[in-house]
Amino acid sequence: MDALRPMTRRNVVRGIAASATAFTFPCPSHAQFRARVVVIGGGFGGASCARALRRIDPTLDVTLIEPNRTFTACPFSNEVIAGLRDIEAQQFTYDKIIAEGVKVVAQAAAKVDPQTRVVGLADGALLSYDRLVLAPGIDLRFEALPGYNEAAAAKMPHAWTAGEQTALLRRQIEAMEDGGLIALAVPANPSRCPPGPYERASLIAHYLRARKPRSKILILDAKDTFPLQRLFENAWNELYPGMIERVSLSQGGRVTSVDPAANTIVTDFGNYTAQVANIIPPQKAGRIAAIAGAADNTGWCPIDPVSFASKLLPAVHVIGDACFGGVIPKSASAANAQAKACAEAVASLISGKPQATPRLVGACYSVVAP
Fold first, then answer.
1. Residue 354 CB coordination number (10 Å)
2. Listing from the earlier edge strand, what are the strands of the sheet with 264-267?
3. N or C: fewer beta carbons within 10 Å in the chain?
4. Domains along the chain with CATH numbers
5. Residue 265 backbone dihedrals phi, psi, to 5 degrees
6. How far apart are the C-alpha atoms of 20 and 74, rounded to whole Å?
7. pTM surpassing 0.85?
8. Each residue of 9-49: pLDDT tens digit?
């Protein structure tokens, strides 16, 4: 259990945020060529890559495209759901990124023309680039789960993108009477943060044990095994005996459809009606990846795992949850490591210097109790 409780991940996230204050670079005042790098997506991957590019080469003209002026982080959002943390603690602005010389454009990217190397924004503006980095995160595949859509998510929240959905799930759990059932539907891989659903179940159980001890949690899982499974199950047996039940894929745990009106979940082997239904649907790379042509028929973006260059588009790199590069996990820590390696690769390609072998180092811990 202790292996699940270290706060190293918290320190990693704080370190990422703190690093934004550490680097400031003067802009060259004399006329010279400035290579243009556009980064789409201001999450852990995109923001970290934009910052790293400026750190590596302050002469680069780096633009970060992100429609949201405030970033709401997913790591630790399970603690918000469990009443251990306020949502405001998850929110960050881009002011310190801007202070480092990165241009931040508060618009959504609407199109990418890889032939002319132009990004089109939602307001019609166009941005030219020499190198493009896509870090769009994930989109939810509502169409993959019959009965589930954005309207249904208002009744059966996914809470898999941090923000209002996080707060909604918390409110539903707080409003539930003692003795109620919370059902958590977990998709098959690949998906963002594979241990996340099991951390969520653990922290919700911590809340229930203190406030609604007769309540239960049912995990309906589209997988037979999951990361850190033995550690999670040992923690559940010791901390929350009899409170968490998991139905695996081979036991009929795969969710095939939902009925939001009845709060009912349909699986291969049976139906379940819950007082709170947390439905995490299948996922894919963020929408702009498909628009650009960087995603293949799996919905994810194939890349070269050394340079993070797209295998489908020239002069385009993909990092973070959207990319598919072998065993690289989809997590904030991995996205941050990829961002730095990608920045090195982009800077090397622009300068013509050999690229150093990337070192992808990260840490990701799950919390089963505060």
1. 7
2. 255-259, 264-267, 271-273
3. C
4. 2-139+284-351 (3.50.50.60), 142-281 (3.50.50.60)
5. -115, 130
6. 18
7. yes
8. 444 334 433 333 333 333 333 345 799 999 999 999 999 99
